[in-house]
Amino acid sequence: AHKAAPTGFVTSLEFKHQLRVCNAYPNTVPMDIYRGASERLTGESPLPYKDCRDFEAPLVAGDKLEFKMGGADAGTFSISDLPNNDAVLLLVIHRHDALSTAVAFESHVFAGLATAQVAVIDTYKGKEHSVAKIMDLSLKKEGDKAEPVRSEELRYSSVVAVNPGEYEVVLESDSGEERARTKLVALKRQSYVVMRTGVESMSGSSFPQELVVYPNFDPASLHSAAARPLASLAAVVLAAFGAVLAC
Length: 247
What we know:
Elements: E1 17-24, E2 31-35, E3 39-40, E4 51-55, E5 64-69, E6 72-79, E7 87-95, E8 103-110, E9 116-122, E10 130-136, E11 139-142, E12 145-148, E13 151-154, E14 158-162, E15 165-173, E16 178-186, E17 191-199, E18 207-214, E19 236-237, E20 242-245
Parallel strand pairs: 1-7, 9-17
Antiparallel strand pairs: 1-4, 2-3, 2-5, 5-6, 6-20, 7-8, 9-14, 10-13, 10-15, 11-12, 14-19, 15-16, 17-18
């Protein structure tokens, strides 16, 4: 009788790389994203300003992501290297400066950690200076007024870990004036981006400072209704996985 050939017990690993793109380029025209010249990742729904989107398209080193607005080339990002593990690859397109309309990119590879990770990115271009702060929503009562127990600064161009819970992120001026506020529901093993957006343009329209947090989850997703204390915000720098190509 014919015997089947033995099957090998060593197989190559396939890693899942999820691409997360955020459009922080201030413009009323949404952004189309292509892989190469023809594969339109955004399909029939271009990515609006202040929005982020996850793409499951498998990436390989050498891939080029083309960004277009209204059919015109905006910029190109080349994937230079990919991690040998499952990862979320964050790519943020934004304004290079307040004078020109050129684009710039920020990129980061999120490590596979059990805690929630938050990448903090400042894409604002202009004279106004603001800091981002994260506050837990474990509230202490002072009469009829509820105040957050604790807040810490989120340093730009860094990645921090936070415990699961419900938080608020606030943008404050040097004088302590609140510029923007939004919620962050931190879940285990999730990767988040907090961005300051806007431009005080010297050519074209200006856009005010705003905060963007992505992704957004319902607080009901938390196992406990009470937010836990902030984890130690030991910041690490953003780790790039590609390079900008001249258009």
